[in-house]
Predict the structure of Kinesin-like protein.
Amino acid sequence: MNERKNQLFRVQVSVRQRPYTKDEIELKKTSIVKVSNQNELTLQCGSNGKNYTFDRVFKSGASQAEVYDVVVRPLVDSMLSGCTCTVFAYGPTGTGKTYTMIGDSVRPTLDFLNDPSVGMVPRAAADIFNRLSQLGVQFNVTVSFVEIYNEEVRDLLISDTCNLRIYDDPDNKGATCIKGVSEVPVKNCTELFELLMIGASDRHMASTNLNRQSSRSHTIFTIVATIRELSNGVETIKTGKINLIDLAGSENIGRSGATEMRAREAGTINKSLLTLAKVIKALALKSQHIPYRESKLTRILQDSLGGKSKTSIITTFSPSPDVFEETISTLDYAHMARTVSNCPTYNITTIRRDHLTKELESEVKSLRLELN
Ligand code: ADP
Ligand code: MG
């Protein structure tokens, strides 16, 4: 496989505050957030304050469309060129991770204008299918949807699966695969939305039964597009991938040594999330050993952190003074992730097809355009 090497690409980190809830407005809560400009904000609570710089600071009330345009659309561009891309939603429980990634509606529609709450996954899916059909190329798209809960990897697209194993990808050094995970072919957005809903409701059901535990699971929705193009007797095959991740609540990391110990005792520490923070720290400090193998999440995503992917983190937080410390610790971790760089490569294979004349190629292209 030809891999076009690119320059370093730093992990992009944006922050998004959730709006005040009705209760918070009634209680006349003040906000701890002051947004200075598109890149800077200050958290202020009494005499305690801290300034941060991020790749993007969204204003309170920023729309899903704006977050998509700024954070996810550029990654979809890269994915359609054959790159692997990852978007994480990171933040404490109740700050808008699931809202950002999936949206509020139980069943997303393509009617974004009438339902502006549609999240990043459906928007990315619609964008990918729109652009593929406009290109007039041959393509196929598959999706996978897994959950990591209690260090077990579960396939959300088939019921009653056991813990799936992770192994090194033999064709892609540094990347990993999940053994036996379903990669379901989808022809259009409607089919993809159907799978998203099946998987999301599976997670949701588990979370209602076990109550608080949804805040301790991670979900990874993956879209893979294989694009075949013929030009001047050469067939080009690009394989792009985007992972859209809704992480467990960042409170499950444990804030300091002391709270981490308490969280461990209560059994609420989340090994995958804790290891994610450790991996980010080790990469930020340029350590020799990066502990990817210590958790399922970091093992699955090792290529997205310090590897060959393009990665963006959307950090969600609450503007309430009640959780000032928690917000500081969340933004501190997120800020550290900005020092991590990846070296993205593009998965592109070319095959000579000399027997096809140019006329035939253009005919195939125009027929495909008609079909789409
Ligand atoms: P999390 O997944 O981080 O636990 P949720 O996505 O479930 O949090 O969000 C908690 C609540 O806040 C939901 O009712 C959600 O609709 C609302 N919410 C979060 N972020 C936003 C936002 N940016 N705009 C409007 N509502 C939001
Ligand atoms: Mg959630």
